[in-house]
Design brief:
It is built from 11 helices and 17 strands. Strands 9, 10, 11, 12, 13, 14, 15, 16 and 17 form a 9-stranded antiparallel sheet that branches. It has a 4-stranded parallel sheet with strand order 3-2-1-4, with helices on both faces. Strands 5-8-6-7 form a 4-stranded antiparallel sheet, with helices on both faces. Strand 11 (209-214) and strand 12 (217-223) form a beta hairpin. It is globular, with a radius of gyration of 20 Å. The protein has helices spanning 18-29, 60-68, 82-89, 98-105, 107-116, 130-140, 167-173, 229-245, 279-282, 287-295, 322-325; strands spanning 10-14, 33-37, 51-53, 72-75, 124-127, 144-148, 158-161, 179-183, 189-197, 203-205, 209-214, 217-223, 250-259, 262-269, 307-315, 331-335, 346-356. By secondary structure, the protein is an alpha+beta fold.
């Protein structure tokens, strides 16, 4: 456990996208400075941070200078190269720790970890060769989904197998890279829990949100989710189990499928999460402040929800409707400062308050 940071301390953030931007805003509200490390020029987080380093993750000198300029390091995405962590961890604490990254970066490792905790996951099989694929299809069956083991997000890096005959085309489409074949789950809906764990082991979870995807990208998250009391409790308890098993520090998103047989864990994300954006207008302490509190060694805030909320992502040119959206007194508008409204690109989100918690 590191000493609690004082006001004026600097938090280093790996990644300069919208999550890094919102982490920087949250940090500034608590009196902290932020320093962004991002390979791409003019990142959204750079607009609100105190400093930005623009360099590749292979630049050891830049990583060293970055680490020496901050008090603690966190991240907004999970695909950070191991070599970069080797440099950074020698100089400053990196939170959450790399075991959480290693677990989430590889879908096979993730599923084996979750299964080892006694949690339910979809049937799965490792696929590294065409022969593996044939065996996996025979074992897991179809319909199923072939996913790259690493670097998949927002529907990318996956292909659906409707029948056994689709296997080779799917394998070729994903570049014959190591994959996992996941069995199809007959679920009614998806929910996610945003959980947080402090350096002292305190765990706080937000209410589960109900997710709807469109074209592989999260479209809406609605609170409250369609869950009974038992399902809601199970969702929160299993999230805490994952956080404790990893000795985790920070905020994590846990995605779950709701089935007649119980909850099935889809995946975990060791960072603040798109499905937790509703907390910005539905709670006093949102997921971004909660994460900053955790990595700074502060006590966690209360995650109680005071309002019912629907979070909607603004994708591509949907952001052009912001003037109309901003006229709605029940909408909290959050824009990411991205210049080009490209198709499929997350440009912002809105949180619509639909009423008080009953």
């Amino acid at each position: 456990m590191t000493k609690a940071l004082q006001q004026g301390a600097t938090i280093g953030i790996l990644g300069g996208g919208q999550l890094g931007r919102m982490l920087s805003v949250a940090a500034s509200r608590l009196g902290f400075k932020t320093h962004i490390f991002e390979p791409g020029a003019n990142p959204p987080a750079g607009h609100v941070a105190d400093a930005v380093t623009t360099a590749p993750y292979s630049d050891h000198d830049a990583l060293t200078a970055f680490a020496n300029s901050v008090d603690v390091i966190t991240f907004e995405f999970e695909n950070i190269p191991t070599q970069a962590l080797d440099v950074l961890e020698k100089l400053r604490p990196v939170l959450p720790a790399r075991n959480a990254l290693a677990t989430s970066q590889d879908r096979i490792v993730e599923k084996e970890f979750l299964s080892g905790l006694g949690l339910n996951v979809a049937p799965f099989a490792n696929v590294e060769t065409a022969e593996d694929l044939s065996t996996a299809v025979a074992t897991v069956g179809t319909p199923s989904i072939l996913k790259t083991r690493r670097f998949g997000y927002d529907g990318k890096g996956q292909a659906r197998l409707k029948t056994n005959d689709d296997a080779q085309a799917a394998w070729d489409a994903l570049g014959n890279t190591p994959c996992v074949l996941e069995g199809f789950i007959d679920f009614s809906h998806e929910v996610s829990v945003i959980g947080a764990r402090s350096q002292s082991g305190e765990v706080v979870c937000y209410d589960p949100g109900e997710n709807v995807h469109r074209d592989g990208i999260l479209h809406t998250t609605t609170l409250p989710a369609t869950l009974n009391v038992s399902q809601r409790m199970d969702a929160v308890l299993l999230t805490g189990k994952v956080l404790n098993a990893l000795d985790y520090v920070g905020v994590m998103g846990v995605e779950l499928f709701v089935t007649p047989a119980g909850l099935i864990v889809n995946e975990i994300a060791p960072r603040v999460h798109n499905s937790g954006h509703w907390t910005q207008n539905g709670c006093v302490i949102d997921q971004f402040e909660q994460h900053i509190r955790a990595v700074a060694g502060w006590p966690l805030g209360d995650g109680t929800r005071h309002s019912n909320v629907v979070m909607t992502n603004l994708i591509g040119d949907e952001v052009l409707d912001v003037v109309k959206l901003s006229s709605d007194a029940n909408i909290g508008l959050h824009l990411y400062g991205k210049a080009d409204a490209k198709p499929g690109r997350k440009m912002g989100h809105v949180n619509k308050i639909t009423g008080p918690v009953n």
